[in-house]
Specification:
This protein is an alpha+beta fold. The chain has helices spanning 20-29, 71-80, 90-101, and strands at 6-10, 36-41, 45-51, 53-55, 60-68, 111-119, 124-129. The protein has one domain: Glutamine Phosphoribosylpyrophosphate, subunit 1, domain 1 (4-Layer Sandwich), CATH 3.60.20.
């Protein structure tokens, strides 16, 4: 098990975003490297997430714990729909799949996974895990 760290709070009760550093440090000791702190705030709320992928143009950040068994199949389908990929990370497949299927993306995913996705444009935090609950959330 790896882990997901972050929070979404009303601006008036938001935690100190510096608290994310120790959370990410704890995850790094568990073998999770490459997470970055992502902070999005406005007058109403604060979203803070240890993200494995951030698309600044789309204003989407996500962290994926686990694997997408059908990542290659999803990538092929998304390529046919005009999406492009800069690498072969499953997080990028998940992000593009979310952009195509929106919250219905969870119906497309197979594997042992949990993820947190923050979509600032839609003011939406999407949390999901695999159907069998192999990855806790």
């Amino acid at each position: 098990m790896a882990g997901i760290a972050g929070w979404l709070a009303a601006a008036r009760s938001a935690a100190d975003e510096q608290a994310l550093g120790p959370m990410l440090g704890a995850l790094e000791r568990r073998g999770i490297a490459g997470l970055v702190g992502y902070v999005e705030r406005d007058r109403r709320r604060q979203a803070v997430l240890g993200a494995s992928l951030v698309d600044s143009a789309a204003r989407i950040a996500l962290v994926l714990d686990g694997t997408l068994a059908n990542a290659d199949e999803l990538r092929a389908r998304l390529l046919r729909h005009g999406f492009s990929f800069s690498g072969d990370k499953p997080e990028e497949v998940l992000l593009r799949a979310y952009q195509y299927w929106d919250k219905e993306v969870v119906r497309q995913l197979r594997g042992a996974f949990a993820f947190a996705l923050w979509d600032a444009r839609k003011d939406r935090l999407l949390l999901a895990r695999d159907r069998f609950g192999e990855k806790p959330l």
